[in-house]
Amino acid sequence: MRFDVITLFPELFGPHQRVGITRRAYDSGALELKLWPLREHADDAYRRVDDRPFGGGPGMVMLAEPLQRALAAVRRERGGAPVPLVHFSPSGEPLTQAHVERFASGPGAVLLCARYEGVDQRFIDAEVDLELSLGDYVLSGGELPALVLLDAVARLLPGVLSEASHQHESFSDDLLEGPHYSRPEVLATAAGAQAVPPVLLSGHHAEIARWRREQALRVTAARRPELIARARARGRLSAQDEAFLRSLQL
Ligand code: 9D3
Fold first, then answer.
1. Which of 31, 197, 224, 244 has the most CB atoms lying inside 10 A of its own CB?
2. Consecutive H or E run containing 5
């Protein structure tokens, strides 16, 4: 699958292609990335890609015409196959694992990384298929959100992660994951000796599974109560889960 990224800062994408499991996705050819430096599509000697907003106000707006030329170059190289144009914007819909799964099973996308205050709305109206936000905090541009999408897609591609690693994903069953422990059985910390929860050393697989389920319910109820409501609405909470939730001091 191929992603084309229109950006003023193509250098930001290098390290992602060189480390960890994402490197495996790029090296295997499962994930192909082409960067399109927007300044190459400016039309004046100053390589201008932004200007002041009509109507006044702070900041600068990304010009539509360099974006039109960059997109035309991308579409020319990709041939006729339709591919969605995704614009990363603070006004977009929040990126979710459902978006990620849709991209992972599709042909890829063109990713537009905005800088400045935003993009001329006429380009968005004419060309953009989907506007995505990373969440309610202010970033300096769309490059990190684009990397987040690429990262989340890369690990779903065939041969990138072992099959088993996909099964127990947080969000795959609507709950956050509970805690994990490994050696040593007793850890010295500033707060004193911290033992592993004894049930994990008991060898009772059913009890361990039940304890892990309860930890997931506990941490989810405390931090993300809306995920408990969603799991309930989807019929994913058993009578035993509900009894445990009632026993928590919420
Ligand atoms: C004062 C109005 N600001 C909007 C919240 C202006 C503004 C700030 C930062 C406009 C653009 C940006 C740059 N941010 C992104 O391009 C961006 C972003 C983000 O800031 N937060 C979460 N997701 C995203 S996706 C792209």
1. 31
2. strand 2-7
Which tens digit of pLDDT belongs to each residue from 109-137?
A: 999 999 999 999 999 999 999 999 999 99
CA atoms of 181 and 222, how far apart (whole Å): 20
CB-ligand 1 contact for 63 (6 Å cutoff): no
Amino acid letter at 5?
V
Q: Which residues contact 249 (CB under 8 A, 6 or more apart)?
A: none
Which ligand 1 atom is nearest residue 114's CA?
16
Structural domains of the chain in order of their starting residue, each with its CATH number: 2-164 (3.40.1280.10), 175-248 (1.10.1270.20)
Q: Ligand 1, residues 95, 139, 140: which to mutate, most atoms within 8 A of Cβ?
A: 139
Q: Are 171 and 97 in contact (CB under 8 A)?
A: yes
- Burial tier of 59 (Cβ tally within 10 Å: 0-12, 13-18, 19+): exposed
CA 131 – ligand 1 centroid, Å: 12
Query: Per-residue pLDDT tens for 34-75?
Result: 999 999 999 999 999 999 999 999 999 999 999 999 999 999
